[in-house]
Amino acid sequence: MQLSAALLKEQRKTTIMTASLTAGLDRIQDQIGYLVISEEGVLASAGELENDEVTAGVMMQMVRTASRFRLSGAVEPPFKRMSVILEDFVYMVTVSGQKVFVVKRQNNQQEPISV
């Protein structure tokens, strides 16, 4: 009986933590999936990126690579946001604390107007 109560308590704690990690990600216009990643792996995911460990690994490697490019004497990280723009969709990456938030959106880029 005690094991069951402890397990329920742990599940509630995990649900609350996941909800706080993903707050607002579902409301991003045109988003079709998201990942919340740390150095330990995927913390939360949904939509087309649900359980997508491959994309998570690629995005983390891109963040690590971009983080190496520091200006001399700079204390701040070299970037907070990064966009990976493809023909049909865009990955928007935000680094906050020890977490990386990746949102996949439809690319609704319009052709330039020629006059």
TrEMBL record:
Keyword entries, A-Z: Lysosome
Question: By its UniProt entry, which InterPro entries does this protein fall under?
Answer: LAMTOR4
Q: Where in the cell is it found?
A: Lysosome
Instruction: Give the similarity note.
Output: Belongs to the LAMTOR4 family.
What organism is this sequence from? Champsocephalus esox
GO terms under biological process: cellular response to amino acid stimulus; positive regulation of TOR signaling
The record's function comment reads: As part of the Ragulator complex it is involved in amino acid sensing and activation of mTORC1, a signaling complex promoting cell growth in response to growth factors, energy levels, and amino acids. Activated by amino acids through a mechanism involving the lysosomal V-ATPase, the Ragulator plays a dual role for the small GTPases Rag (RagA/RRAGA, RagB/RRAGB, RagC/RRAGC and/or RagD/RRAGD): it (1) acts as a guanine nucleotide exchange factor (GEF), activating the small GTPases Rag and (2) mediates recruitment of Rag GTPases to the lysosome membrane.
Grouped into one coarse class, the protein's main location is other
Q: Tell me the PANTHER family matching this sequence.
A: RAGULATOR COMPLEX PROTEIN LAMTOR4 (PTHR33967:SF1)
Q: Does the keyword GTP-binding apply?
A: no
Single GO MF annotation: guanyl-nucleotide exchange factor activity
GO terms for CC?
Answer: lysosome; Ragulator complex
Q: What is this protein called?
A: Ragulator complex protein LAMTOR4
Looking at the record's lineage, which domain of life comes first?
Eukaryota
